[in-house]
């Protein structure tokens, strides 16, 4: 049994203008200690997916269908109390902006101890001891002093370390990190990422890394999925996706990386922008921006096609695979 | 802390100086004090002599200077009507007003926090909608109308509550007599306190609700949920503490304003407090009393605002009262 298995997840938003789907047909599995990258532009539904795994969607969002099986138990159908015993305990989350994640009026210590005591029956002293130990693990200098300080007294990098320490307090099985380094200075981004990986490795924690940074995904994760307008459009081993992107959108993302550009030339970009949820076009959602758009893309939703170890939702890839297969048959027949 | 207090003290002195200047300047523009003092039977020559003797013909600044020096010694002039020091007359009435404001504040604090928090957590529930609806009504109806309505319903129609005065009071300290210690005194407090609270309570409910709803959307509250904390802890520690910061600031100013609102409430309920006294003083053109009232109310404002800033500094860790580390 996989540690986490998401089947046909659908998330909707009940807006005043009507219901819209924010996520559809989300399927993936995550094994113990595995690292999964979720990539896409802003608005693709990456963060919504992160929150819905913990069943933490705030109104008007809700899980409209599918299951989220954590060790076989469906998080989408759990009582509030059961969910609480999993959140922050077995699955924890690290948010994007450490400036906003910590409560400004509570001390670092209070915010750590409360998490421990919510999940375990331990004394204040024991909780403090564990908290200090975790602060040491994330290389916070003089943890005793930091313990009694308020968030505003610490730098951004320091705060994100503390958020990571809180995420690791209960030795969880999964950490969902939603753009954990985006809000930090470039100089400490790598430092924080390395720290997170080191700790996940050491404690055998599975990591779901939500990011728009393909570079990070390629360095860090083994599996990856690319999302567009609430759907997965390509998923599989990270190396295959990076080296041999099949979907025109993934290719576009790859080409947009500065490393891919020829010095002196303009950076490549995908023309247009992601449609808002209310205005997702019929057929393949990417069709208005796609260079290779065909007639069928405008009317029919593409099915997944296997390509190597990957699954790609694209009519063009499907057509090419068909032609390849046909060519192969002809060759074999000859 | 000490640096903060010194800074506030300097500010307070400046504020009090301006208040005293403004209130003293009223004296020149509010009828002829002599007429109130001596009545009809005194001849014009005698009036002129008296006027000269009282210094009423001196330039404004000289008169103000004389007033200020005396005021610093605690002498705010003598009430024309009571023939007693104005400050003493007012301080004698101060406890009644303070008790009224205290009672109203108690009602506001005890009701606005739970109602505001509830309607923020469950904004779509029937109860929250009802609270919001009533609060609009509460804000719209003027205090004197609420007061008259309360008297009509509870005192006349039901006959449950007394309609005027303070009732039995117990002496506590010097001129301070309290209505909080006798049943009769408490009964007399209820209606005036409710009507005084009727304007501010809806305001505070709406303020707390709006702040709380915003705080509940914040990242740190989402993070608190992701940590698996109990809802009670998230609502009443994580969210409420942040909600109260702006509420404390606004609240402090409003308590000061409430002292002013007491004029209406006290008049309707014949409450023997400062506000009622002030209205009588205006009717009698008792200028020293009016000036003294304005200065005392100004002082109350300054003191409450300083206290509020102190409390704010205690609640909000990002504010350092000392200014420097």
UniProtKB/TrEMBL annotation, chain A:
Subcellular location: Cell inner membrane
Membrane in keyword set: yes
Gene3D superfamilies: P-loop containing nucleotide triphosphate hydrolases
UniProt keyword annotations, A-Z: ATP-binding, Cell membrane, Membrane, Nucleotide-binding, Transport
A single GO molecular function term of this UniProt record: ATP binding
Tree of life domain: Bacteria
Membrane topology: Peripheral membrane protein
EC number(s) stated in the UniProt entry for this protein: 7.4.2.9
Residue ranges crossing the lipid bilayer per the database entry: none
Domain ABC transporter: 4-254
Enzymatic reactions: a dipeptide(out) + ATP + H2O = a dipeptide(in) + ADP + phosphate + H(+)
CDD domains membership: ABC_NikE_OppD_transporters
Family: Belongs to the ABC transporter superfamily.
Protein's UniProt name: ABC-type dipeptide transporter
Record organism: Marinobacterium zhoushanense
Lineage: Bacteria, Pseudomonadati, Pseudomonadota, Gammaproteobacteria, Oceanospirillales
From TrEMBL, chain B:
Transmembrane domains' residue ranges: 9-26, 100-121, 133-160, 189-208, 243-264, 290-315
SUPFAM superfamilies: MetI-like
Pfam families in the cross-refs: BPD_transp_1, BPD_transp_1_N
Topology of this chain in the membrane: Multi-pass membrane protein
ABC transmembrane type-1 domain residues: 94-312
Keywords tagged on the record: Cell membrane, Membrane, Transmembrane, Transmembrane helix, Transport
Location in the cell: Cell membrane
Cited InterPro entries: BPD_transp_1_N, MetI-like, MetI-like_sf
PANTHER family from the UniProt entry: ABC TRANSPORTER PERMEASE PROTEIN, DIPEPTIDE TRANSPORT SYSTEM PERMEASE PROTEIN DPPB-RELATED
Entry similarity comment: Belongs to the binding-protein-dependent transport system permease family.
Name this polypeptide is given: ABC transporter permease
UniProt source species: Marinobacterium zhoushanense
Taxonomic path: Bacteria, Pseudomonadati, Pseudomonadota, Gammaproteobacteria, Oceanospirillales
